[in-house]
């Protein structure tokens, strides 16, 4: 009888031996893989650190080459000069503070008074231009003295001058004509010839706000007076009435006298009295209270204030509003006097439109 084929089952030890190679190969592969990653990471960091060290070394070498090894004599002198300049700035600030406490000016330039040595009552500046010679001649023949009479008026304590700047083309026929007229009449205040700390004034309509600043700055340096008066050349002045009014106002150290007004700020370019900086006057677009520019008066201290602070005082499109803005920043005493309202119908006014 044939025997059936039999299959032999592997023993337990044989099965363990056969499966063992498969179990030990996987961890080896994983270990090798992670070892490669670690080697690449370390190698990359070492390379990056080496590059950084090389870059830092080159930068340090470059900076050390540019930096001086020792402080030169020129460097020491520059350092000493800066310290000296700082010291002088501090001294100047202290002098300015002392000057303001003593009446706005200290060690000021020598001023002129009347021939009798007394302090002047007023300096009157009459605005004029290159094309206004006919008006000047009319004034000299009416309310304004001329020649010896003008000198006698100065002995009474009142100085009158036509105020004018220079032509844009310095030394041209306009300037020469004014110089010739001044040699004959001696009644001009030519701003570029005056002892002013500011630059000379260029005569032009758009420069009028700067002209008023320069006029007060110049006049307060040249003459020692109680009051400084600015008037336009389109009015007739009652000189004796003005002198009487100012004489009765002596001793008012911070007086700002004139026909006080305010009004709408013109915002549309091209219209008369246009104000380029209209947006600064708020939503109401109305000017602050100020004296009309045709004729107004500043006391000595206020004129000195303009002189000292002229470099930092802001000007607007018009001279009267510019002066009004300066007066808002000081303890000025506003005197609204309708006798300075030249267009009014008052009988006792000191001026009238020509």
Automatic annotation (TrEMBL):
Regarding the membrane, this protein is recorded as:
Single-pass type II membrane protein
Its annotated compartments are:
Golgi apparatus membrane
Where, by residue number, does the polypeptide cross the bilayer?
A: none
Region entry Disordered, spans: 1-20
Concerning Gene3D superfamilies, the annotation shows: 3.90.550.50
Listed cofactors: Mn(2+)
Kindly give the InterPro entries that the UniProt entry links to this protein.
Answer: DUF4094 (IPR025298), Glyco_trans_31 (IPR002659)
Which of UniProt's keywords are assigned here?
Glycosyltransferase, Golgi apparatus, Manganese, Membrane, Signal-anchor, Transferase, Transmembrane, Transmembrane helix
Q: What Enzyme Commission number does this protein have?
A: 2.4.1.-
**Which intervals carry biased composition (Polar residues)?**
1-11
The protein's predominant localisation is Golgi
What pathway does the annotation place this protein in? Answer: Protein modification; protein glycosylation
Which ranges carry the DUF4094 domain? 25-102
Q: Does the keyword Manganese apply?
A: yes
What sort of enzyme, by top EC class, is this? transferase
Q: Which one Pfam family would you cite for this protein?
A: DUF4094
Family (UniProt) = Belongs to the glycosyltransferase 31 family.
| Protein's name in the database | Hexosyltransferase
Instruction: Give the species.
Output: Xanthoceras sorbifolium
